[in-house]
Amino acid sequence: MPRTPEENERIRQSAKEKIQKAAMALFIRQGYHATSISDVAKEAGISKGLLYNYYKGKEELLATMVETRIRELVEVMESAKSNRKPDEQHRYIIEGAIDNVYQNPEVFRFICICKHSRKQIWT
C-alpha cells in the first residue's frame, strides 16, 4: 500500500530533524568550517545525496537552523504579550530562556558558537 501524503511529510520532517541534530552536534564539536556535508550525512546516518535532497548545502542548512531558533524566540515573545505588565513580560521571557537552556543545552551551545563565529560564517 502506498504511503499517504501525511506519512511522506512525517518521514520528510523526521529526516530533516535528524540532519539538523547531526549538524548541530558537529558544528559544536568541530566548528562550522571544519564540518563538511559528508560529515553531516555520515553523522545523520544518511547518504549525501539524500541530504542534498533537503538542503542545497551547508549554508542553507545553517540558515535553516538559525531561522528555527529565531522562530522559537518570536513564539516566546508573542506568548509573553499575554502578561499585561512589562515586568511580567520580561520575567516570562527570561524564565523561558533559562528553562530552554536547561532543557536543550546543545541549542544554547550552538547559539553561542554562531554568535562567536558569525563574522567567519557569514562572510
UniProtKB/TrEMBL annotation:
Q: Which GO terms describe its molecular function?
A: DNA binding
Keywords carried by this UniProt record = DNA-binding, Repressor
Q: Which residues bind DNA?
A: 36-55
In terms of SUPFAM superfamilies, this protein maps to: Homeodomain-like (SSF46689)
Q: Which InterPro entries match?
A: Homeodomain-like_sf, HTH-type_Tx_Regulator, HTH_TetR
Q: Does the keyword rRNA-binding apply?
A: no
In the UniProt record, the signal sequence range is none
Record keywords: DNA-binding included? yes
Cite the HTH tetR-type domain residue spans from the record. Answer: 13-73
Q: Which organism is it from?
A: Salibacterium halotolerans
The name of this protein is Regulatory protein, tetR family
